[in-house]
Write a structure and sequence with these properties.
This protein has about 110 residues and is mainly beta. Helices cover about 0% and strands about 55% of the residues. The mean pLDDT is about 95.
Length: about 110
């Protein structure tokens, strides 16, 4: 299983970005997927998750601003981020857990300027 994130970058406060995570390996449609983030000096935190049945949950800090979705035909999970704030600045990681094994992508940097 390999996870490759893309779509990060520098954006002004109030702007939007869409992150993508492309997964390799068979069975993607059955995997729960999640986005985490880690700011400098902070612990990694869960941002949003989506199940194989496409039920979603998002952290309170991003509720109403971030949306997670998946495209099983493309083996890709997305994180649509809107109304970005400087405190959203972090490295964003894609994650899945399959049969007890945890997989991470390499991360993509999101920087929000004020």
């Amino acid at each position: 299983v390999q996870l490759v994130e893309s779509g990060g970058g520098l954006v002004q406060a109030g702007g939007s970005l869409r992150l993508s995570c492309a997964a390799s390996g068979s069975g993607f449609s059955m995997w729960p997927m999640a986005w985490y983030r880690q700011a400098p000096g902070e612990q990694r935190e869960l941002v949003a998750g989506i199940t194989s049945g496409e039920s979603t949950n998002v952290a309170d800090s991003v509720k109403g601003r971030f949306t997670i979705s998946r495209d099983n035909a493309k083996n890709t999970v997305y994180l649509q981020m809107s109304s970005l704030k400087p405190e959203d600045t972090a490295v964003y990681y894609c994650n899945t857990v399959i049969y007890g094994y945890t997989y991470w992508g390499q991360g993509t940097q999101v920087t929000v300027s004020s």
